[in-house]
Fold this protein.
Amino acid sequence: MNFCDLIGKTILITGASSGIGKQAAISITKQGGKVIISGRDKKKLDNSFAELKGTDNQLIAADLKSEDQIQKLVDVIPELNGIVHCAGIIGPTPAKFIQQENIDKMFRINFEVPVLLTAKILMSKKLQNNSSIVFISTVATKSPYFGGSLYNSSKSAIEAYSLTLALELANKGIRSNCISPGLVNTPLISEPAKEGQMEIVEDSLQRYLKKYPMGIGEPEDVANTIVFLLSDESKWISGTNITMGGIIQ
Ligand SMILES: NC(=O)c1ccc[n+]([C@@H]2O[C@H](COP(=O)([O-])OP(=O)(O)OC[C@H]3O[C@@H](n4cnc5c(N)ncnc54)[C@H](OP(=O)(O)O)[C@@H]3O)[C@@H](O)[C@H]2O)c1
């Protein structure tokens, strides 16, 4: 057995059509794991799927805003050894401009979706004992940026949820952990903004870059930590939150 081997493990990854989730899926299959990848955009999911290693991987397109689609996803997935919650949005709104709609949108994807998906998977008894659940938070919960109050709050909420989940599932050997990366080089920062995404203009990107003496992250950096947290090598780690990005100034 190699270090961080995932042979024999089946992992569900949300947000796998892009960025960190896509790379997590690729890295998990390189370690011998099987994956079920999910996202909204079928074409992008197909591209992710084409890069996976091994056989028996699955692709399920779903807009997880809908509870119905969350349930449909849970109904068709096989038994799991891990879940990686990568689906997420950003969308900066200075505090005084926040409206109910902004709160609903942000908390729906970044908090309610992973919470409801986890609950439904637990209810279905499809998560085996000794599984591992990984949530993606952000360094910004501790090191805020202007306009990020809703995003950072939704991620703080998922950190608190993950910690409590770790307690509730410990007797089954199921672990729950967060990873909190700094800026990562994904379509979130390199492509024109979609609905719910922050437009990062070249000017502010240069300002962000100066904050990272070790440079910004690549999806592989986060995916390697995801692989570690899914593997048996981390079997004594639960209820933690791993910060990534070096010293952020
Ligand atoms: N990039 C960074 O600098 C950074 C830093 C810290 C934390 N994070 C967190 O890391 C996670 C992944 O970010 P990323 O940079 O990889 O972003 P990304 O490239 O924009 O990917 C986001 C993923 O979320 C999916 N998604 C969004 N809304 C969805 C919905 N309603 N239903 C189902 N899937 C949905 C997208 O699916 P479709 O494309 O198919 O719509 C996409 O696969 C997010 O939670 C983000 O907050 C990112």
User: Anything to note?
Assistant: Helices lie at 19-30, 42-50, 67-76, 100-124, 149-169, 187-190, 202-209, 219-230. Residues 132 and 229 are 7 Å apart (CA to CA). The two ends are 40 Å apart (CA to CA).
